[in-house]
């Protein structure tokens, strides 16, 4: 009898083991799609998009996320897929967006893990994918979500001069990142639903950033500004953070060219924004490396620890190329964009035997304040984690490739 129980126990354990092994195999299969074929004859935008689809069958799995979430980085990738779908009409890309949206927005339009009262400007960014998704599907939940995000901007806390705080937990602060997170969504919403009545307010966001973060010596913009000048990272006279971070300047430049898509050609602030774009483009061009790329800390060159960073370089390429394509920048910037993109594909892209491509040297994240404390020093920026296929480097690569028709 005792012998039978031991045998029975052994069989039970074995069965459990087989079930767990089987589940792990299913999970592995669900997170990748070996059926996707990536030809080297495709344009770079599709090679990257198909590589993403091959690695992560669900968009929320990007960055090795363990569960779905409403997230500005995933919103960035979805924005690139949206533009790629418009270019190719390939339903693979539209379905990828829709599948993600269905995991983060329920049937009544409530957004997963979103709280309006957090007043986090990052949370607005993923809303950009919803405009075209709503137009394609006519599902009311997406319109409800769009209106929820617009409602946040109505009461979002501001500096005394009218600029959106980056987050409620970062009072009195404007970051360059926030311009991209909030203004393109705001611009499209006011253009499509409000008769364009809020473009003065949108322009104000750029005016405040330009006024308070511009460095007269280099022409570059500091990463952030603290109106209260109370943060340890803030200059006690100007309130600015101490360094230039390429991706933050890239966010700002992408915001400019994307907002201009919606601002009426006769709007009195339009010329001002185009002037801002020309000024920052001229400054950024001075720091382009001979490889065509830009460094993590924009003005520090090959100082020890500094490195040629993917996402900032991609964003500059995108802004240069789109700026020329739309007539905002002189044609000479197209050559700089071409040089930058060639640098990306020769220095930062790796290709697997099956055609899958990867983007390397992407700064995973960088910010100011918080816990553990981020002081904005040179040492801080160069020591943040560097990753391959981080979402910050995926979306802008597709966007840059599309603008250059690569």
UniProtKB/TrEMBL annotation:
Q: Does the keyword Hydrolase apply?
A: yes
| Keyword terms | Hydrolase
KW Transmembrane helix (keyword) present: no
Q: Which GO terms describe its biological process?
A: carbohydrate metabolic process
In its UniProt record, a GO molecular function of this protein is: hydrolase activity
Pfam families in alphabetical order: Glyco_hydro_88
The cross-references to SUPFAM superfamilies, in alphabetical order and at most eight, read: Six-hairpin glycosidases
Q: Tell me what this protein is called.
A: Glycoside hydrolase family 88 protein
Whose protein is this, by species? Flavobacterium circumlabens
């Amino acid at each position: 009898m005792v012998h039978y129980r031991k045998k029975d126990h052994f069989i039970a354990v074995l069965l459990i083991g087989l079930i767990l092994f089987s589940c792990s195999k299913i999970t592995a299969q669900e997170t990748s799609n070996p059926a996707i074929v990536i030809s080297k004859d495709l344009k770079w935008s599709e090679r990257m998009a198909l590589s993403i689809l091959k690695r992560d069958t669900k968009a929320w799995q990007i960055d090795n996320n363990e569960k779905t979430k409403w997230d500005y980085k995933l919103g960035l990738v979805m924005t690139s897929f949206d533009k790629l779908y418009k270019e190719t009409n390939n339903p693979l890309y539209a379905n990828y967006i829709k599948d993600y949206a269905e995991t983060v927005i329920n049937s009544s339009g409530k957004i997963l893990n979103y709280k309006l009262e957090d007043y986090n400007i990052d949370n607005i960014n993923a809303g950009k994918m919803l405009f075209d998704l709503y137009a394609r599907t006519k599902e009311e939940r997406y319109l409800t979500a769009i209106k929820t995000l617009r409602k946040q901007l109505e009461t979002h806390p501001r500096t005394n001069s009218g600029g959106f705080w980056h987050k409620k937990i970062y009072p009195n602060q404007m970051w360059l990142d926030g311009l991209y997170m909030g203004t393109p969504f705001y611009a499209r919403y006011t253009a499509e639903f409000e008769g364009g009545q809020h473009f003065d307010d949108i322009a104000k966001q750029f005016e405040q950033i330009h006024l308070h973060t511009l460095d007269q010596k280099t022409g570059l913009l500091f990463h952030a500004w603290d109106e209260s000048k109370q943060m340890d990272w803030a200059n006690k006279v100007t309130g600015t953070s101490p360094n230039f971070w390429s991706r933050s300047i890239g966010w700002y430049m992408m915001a400019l060219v994307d907002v201009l898509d919606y601002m009426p050609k006769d709007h009195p602030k339009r010329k001002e924004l185009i002037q801002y774009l020309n000024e920052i483009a001229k400054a950024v061009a001075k720091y382009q490396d001979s490889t065509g790329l830009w460094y993590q800390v924009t003005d520090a060159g090959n100082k020890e620890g500094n490195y040629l960073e993917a996402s900032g370089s991609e964003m500059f390429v995108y802004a240069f190329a789109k700026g020329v394509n739309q007539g905002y920048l002189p044609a000479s910037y197209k050559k700089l964009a071409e040089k930058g993109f060639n640098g990306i594909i020769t220095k930062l892209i790796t290709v697997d035997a099956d055609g899958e491509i990867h983007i390397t040297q992407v700064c995973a994240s960088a910010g100011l304040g918080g816990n553990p404390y981020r002081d904005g020093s040179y040492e801080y920026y160069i020591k943040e984690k560097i990753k391959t296929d981080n979402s910050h480097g995926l979306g802008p690569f597709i966007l840059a490739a599309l603008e250059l028709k690569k």
